[in-house]
Records
---
Amino acid sequence: MEKRIAILPGDGVGKEVSRGAVTILQAVAELFNHKFHFTYGEIGGAAIDEFGTPLPERTLNLCKASDAVLLGAVGGPKWDLMPGHIRPEKGLLKIRKELGLYANVRPVQYYSSISGISPLRKEVVEGVDMVVVRELTGGLYFGKPSERSVQKGEASVVDTLFYQKNEIERVIRYAFELAAMRKGKVTSVDKANVLESSRMWRETAEEVAKDYPDVQLNHMLVDNAAMQLIKNPRQFDVLVTENMFGDILSDEASVLTGSLGMLPSASVSASGPYLYEPIHGSAPDIAGMNAANPIAMILSAAMMLRLSFGLEEEAEAIENAVEQVLDAGSRTRDIALFGTPFLTTEGMIEEIKAA
Amino acid sequence: MEKRIAILPGDGVGKEVSRGAVTILQAVAELFNHKFHFTYGEIGGAAIDEFGTPLPERTLNLCKASDAVLLGAVGGPKWDLMPGHIRPEKGLLKIRKELGLYANVRPVQYYSSISGISPLRKEVVEGVDMVVVRELTGGLYFGKPSERSVQKGEASVVDTLFYQKNEIERVIRYAFELAAMRKGKVTSVDKANVLESSRMWRETAEEVAKDYPDVQLNHMLVDNAAMQLIKNPRQFDVLVTENMFGDILSDEASVLTGSLGMLPSASVSASGPYLYEPIHGSAPDIAGMNAANPIAMILSAAMMLRLSFGLEEEAEAIENAVEQVLDAGSRTRDIALFGTPFLTTEGMIEEIKAA
Ligand SMILES: CC(C)[C@H](C(=O)O)[C@@H](O)C(=O)O
Ligand SMILES: CC(C)[C@H](C(=O)O)[C@@H](O)C(=O)O
């Protein structure tokens, strides 16, 4: 198989972990006789520095001409004082919109090998295996107006949560498709007792559910979901929600098992290419120190092989290598118990490649 | 001292726990020689059933004529299918708006006596002592438009996050006042990398901070806050944030210590009366079964004595009685370890009264 993969390392640890993904993908290509063409593009702060914009035309065209996109991370204190429209995060928001990446898919999985680092009790997190599906191109992130004004002599500001019903429907449908292949349970999260958009969300979920008689749907208010994720995370299979709610809840979910540095994500569109990125950010405090955990990025590459290229065996080979290395006790700093030895980013990459 | 207290039991367990607060307040009045006049009003589903509206004029007038308001809880499945404007929750939203309750104050405290029921590891939650200050009369809850429409032939929906700068300022100022009396640290939570309202929020926090040189301010993105609450909750002193973010984060914070059934809250206004309510909801599943934990409501009454009436000694007497009963091993079902004995609501009220 021959595939073109766009690599957008971005900022901070994004560069280091991207190298890890490429190394592992090259090893997979050799082992399974595939040809992966890697082309690099700038995004985020790196792109601002070089081109004055967080998402240059060139990068966007590169992505559109590729079969899949691997992204490291964007952002950092260096660009924090830039005006709104040339901040690194704008690059991320724009690429999501331009590629039509309407659903962000984040599996959260419990690894027994690193159970010791979860902030939760073992009885609570053991066996957690859920996916958060976050709407990614609408909602409070993209609605207009989003601006300041003076109203009756008072400085004021507005942001807007806007959805077309079909935007709500497609992401909920994606969640049902996923649940049908998993444990058959969708939890739709909203704030239907306050927001009109949530009432439409809830109705749409009910409508979509009719097409999936074997999938169980239940509704949960977002404040309750924030509690249930901690009290009883095992109750979830697929959780689907609005963009802003999803930003908050997926980050909350990602720390339950203690494996933030190990969690991949996929953002999918109607017609591709999909974008894959680790959940963790650019981590400016450890950037360039060869200390980041490359596993989330490497598992993102595995997700890409599975979802974009249908290479199930190859994806599993990577996932198994990661588990093997963890079972053997190898750790980067973020997942090492306090006072125990740990590997560098490079060291971890080498171990996974060797496994 | 002579005070008029409005009691709004509301729905579900609200009725049972309200009785607890009144019982304890009567005991305090006797002991310390005060006169508390209790007047009862309907709100939520109970008010819909009787008057066809979740907040009757009569109830509102009663509150305005009182020195403080004690509220149980509102809502329940019985009213879930009602149209938006006569749902129980509307009563709560309306009373907040009508009484100008701009800040909701929720202390989250670790009780060593019940450490066993926290979903988090003891090392993580031990010593947690924080307050969430949530903006309560603006933001995504109240902005207009909040409605459906058809745009370019597509069914659409919009909700609006709106603030006047002075609304942002007063709640942040409240947080600083509180922090100055506590550990001197304010964490202002926003989504400044995406929302314009959050950028105004952040700037306003910086401006207010200038008036409090002894209070340390730091900013945190809401997704990161959702993680930090679990990873390292001890880092927080006073957390202040927008209405919707505050709804999510304060509920998340309230389960960390396992003491959801024990957490009180106060909602404050510029000129009173303030409103006090437990954080837990109406819990329809156990309503009327004499099984609810009355402690959150009783501690809300203690907060009232302190904040509205300046009765510090009386407030402490209640808080000490609660601690004493817990230390002695008394539990309601929600805070009992699995398989250990527990008291009824009435039983717990009696023990606290006796202590
Ligand atoms: C960087 C930021 C704009 C982004 C978001 O809020 O979507 C990030 O937090 C994420 O979750 O991918
Ligand atoms: C009942 C509901 C409207 C309310 C809210 O969202 O404010 C509740 O969740 C709360 O936190 O007091």
Note: The longest strand of chain B covers residues 139-151.
---
Amino acid sequence: MKIHNFSAGPSVLNQEVLKKASEAVLNINNSGLSLLEISHRSKDFVAIFEQAILQVRKMMKLSNDYEVLFLQGGASLQFVMLPYNLFREGGTAGYLETGNWSSSAIKEGKKFGNVQVVASSKDTNFDRIPKDFEIPDNLEYFHFTTNNTIYGTQIKDFSNFKGIKVCDMSSDILSRELDYSQFDLIYAGAQKNIGPAGTTLVVIKKELLNRSQRDIPSYLDYAVHVAKDGMFNTPPVFPIYATTLTLQWLEEQGGLPAIEKLNKKKANLLYSEIDRNPLFTGHAVKEDRSMMNVTFVLNDESLKNKFDSMWKEAGISGVNGHRSVGGYRASIYNALELESVQLLVNVMKELEQIA
Amino acid sequence: MKIHNFSAGPSVLNQEVLKKASEAVLNINNSGLSLLEISHRSKDFVAIFEQAILQVRKMMKLSNDYEVLFLQGGASLQFVMLPYNLFREGGTAGYLETGNWSSSAIKEGKKFGNVQVVASSKDTNFDRIPKDFEIPDNLEYFHFTTNNTIYGTQIKDFSNFKGIKVCDMSSDILSRELDYSQFDLIYAGAQKNIGPAGTTLVVIKKELLNRSQRDIPSYLDYAVHVAKDGMFNTPPVFPIYATTLTLQWLEEQGGLPAIEKLNKKKANLLYSEIDRNPLFTGHAVKEDRSMMNVTFVLNDESLKNKFDSMWKEAGISGVNGHRSVGGYRASIYNALELESVQLLVNVMKELEQIA
């Protein structure tokens, strides 16, 4: 039976990507060697590495003002690296608080200086993106999380954001068309939209390198990685390869315009059902709904066991909600197919019929 | 043609390990899902994760005084984490300098306080392990690199080491029997003896957690990882799985006693030929020769092209030396088979015949 994987991350990848990744573990480029046992400085891997960077550049339409890195340690290490590199002693950094992950970023930022939480939606259990806030002048940088996996909210309008814009794009990277050059530093764990766990994409404006003037430990210094062309130390070879394959697949689908169209279609299908079906209520306010993570609850908790066994029987996996929200979370990242969303919607309709 | 992979790292893995890892990329535990797309908190992955930790504990014979973690960022990030966690303000840390990697560790240590290089073999291009040095009392810790990949030297006697012993074991981890409980902190990138690139093993004595009293960023704080049972953030799922398989394979071979016996046999075979064959000279002094990386040069450089084409034709890969030493480096890690070393020795003998 086909499994429909709505996991919040690590999450679904395309079958062709998995097939190629599996083959490479046995034999990369017909070399007779596994991808896992070749040098990261070998011709084969360097080509893979450079291709990943090139594809990011192309899809984000990045000029030479930007550097692209694949690091390790996830967004959690970026919460540390970004203030180390950008936060000058004595300054104030601004953070927008829209969920657990931005709260974690704030916690780490505070270890480097004065942090101002410019706006927060904590009071309403992060069911919305704060609006109408004023970003102070002279912030060291303004940090935000573009998509909030747990709560199912997403920032759609960046027009009032100003100063040096730093964002955690872990859960909606390369899922939509955006003017990526409006941002100064973008980072994202690969394991939701662009690959498996184990590597973190960092896109940084060159002029921000060496900004903080701190004595930064080498691994934590973006400028060190840039000076070594992204190979300061052994990169996570397999996660980067699977990411390269995913980016390639994304391009073959038609790139960001095509994937955004598909993602919108999937999201609309599911949100329409949530709004139509009297058994369900969405968590996020409508205008801030995420195209990536759809959060909803059953109005009548007594239907839980019935509903859970129905979607499990249908081959659906990973739709349990995070404990902070409860209910359900359907993660519908790039590689999730429309038919999987249709199946979930069908199960929701069936529940209505028999309830 | 079978390729004999003497790469210095990432390096050779056992064929059965590769086969299982390749299968898991398509379907893990017959779940219908790829290992790459399941949650790191799923039953399937948690079992893999716990097994890796258990196998390390078992092979190193670790008591409950130790914690075992699988982190990211390689030894390079450990160069930073170890002083952050262990180096108290105002103290002095001691480092033994035996090669490029220990020099890098020293460089990072200096960002946290006063560093004393207790002994160094830099003057003789790191062809030996310094002896007869005195380790001062009251050091914050004493740091050393147990095996030096580039130069082919290895520490065999730790009996005079004292204080808090911290070591980079990246290139000889789990390759020999040792009293591992004589060390206080051990770290190792997986990509030489125990897995592919992308995860770093850290073994730390519990009493060292929170030692430095610094305000440590969360990802860099061993105590944070320990408090979260090693899952503070999404671990590198695939690299850890391939590591679990490699540790399992190691155990099936008979564990450390058996692998040490094999590694000695491989090393003796190759060093005997280097010493016997008038065309070659070893780089490292005999008593400090590494069982993992065998470094040697041709006495007559004019034979280089001939020799290089001969080993390439034999299916040998990855024996070019590092630029710091020149000549050749045969890395004969755990998973390299005796027949591969025999083949290299045969080629060396053939060169002698025709030279």
Note: Residues 175 and 266 of chain B are 12 Å apart (CA to CA).
